[in-house]
Specification:
There is one protein chain. This protein is an alpha/beta fold. It is about 45% helix and about 15% strand. The chain contains six helices and seven strands. The protein has a five-stranded mixed β-sheet. A two-stranded parallel sheet has the order 4-7.
């Protein structure tokens, strides 16, 4: 049954009226603020900016803001203990897809200073790869408060393509709460994968088995 045009027009008119009233109320509230109110508002904003800048400097002092390689398993435990949010790329020099991840992680490290981005060669970390049950290379270990919360194994979660965008990886990290993501977590970024590629449902993985395999076709 079709809804009469008159009813639709009336609903639209009422909705517009409510919005106008809300805008007028906000404007009225602003105009009623005296100099002291405005000064207090300015001080609060300035204080918030100072706090944010102080936090950023603290992160930078801990090695955030850049994508770095660590040399040993011992370094890994120190880096993870020192920061709340950590993304660690377990890589191997001979695996082509690791170099693809390097490019995207370097960009995200600069954008998301709240998170530490590091990489570790699996051939230098046999104990750690066994402990974290890392079998496929590349694998990203996503850590919160010193504990492994999630993994990105190969490119399955990124559209099963080597040509995924930085935005797609950013979205995937946001799904794990390891970065401050401002987009829509319910849907991956549009236009970031080839037609026909699939986006798998994001789930925490349990990686079983010893040793590790390459996710690259050329290996």
């Amino acid at each position: 049954m079709a809804i009469p045009v008159e009813i639709i027009s009336k609903v639209i008119e009422q909705t517009a009226k409510v919005v106008d009233e809300q805008v007028e109320a906000q404007l009225s509230k602003l105009t009623e603020m005296d100099d002291d109110d405005l000064e207090r508002l300015k001080e609060r904003r300035l204080e918030a900016l100072k706090k944010a800048q102080k936090q950023k400097q603290e992160w930078l002092s801990k090695g955030h803001g850049e994508y770095r390689e660590i040399s040993s398993e011992k370094d890994f435990f120190g880096e993870v203990k020192d920061s709340k949010n950590v993304v660690c790329h377990f890589y191997r020099n001979s695996t082509f897809r690791c170099k693809i991840l390097d490019k995207h992680l370097a960009l995200l490290a600069k954008k998301h200073v709240e998170t530490k981005f590091i990489k570790l060669n699996v051939e230098k970390a046999p104990f750690l790869t066994e402990r974290l049950r890392i079998k496929v290379i590349p694998t990203l270990a996503l850590l919160l408060d010193g504990k492994t919360k999630d993994y990105v194994v190969g490119f399955t979660d990124l559209g099963n393509t080597d040509e995924f965008s930085t935005e797609m990886l950013e979205w995937r990290l946001g799904c794990a709460d390891v970065i401050n993501y401002s987009g829509n977590l319910m849907e991956p970024p549009t236009g970031s994968q080839k037609s026909g590629s699939k986006i798998t449902k994001v789930e925490k993985k349990s990686i079983r088995g010893r040793g590790y395999d390459s996710d690259s076709e050329d290996d």
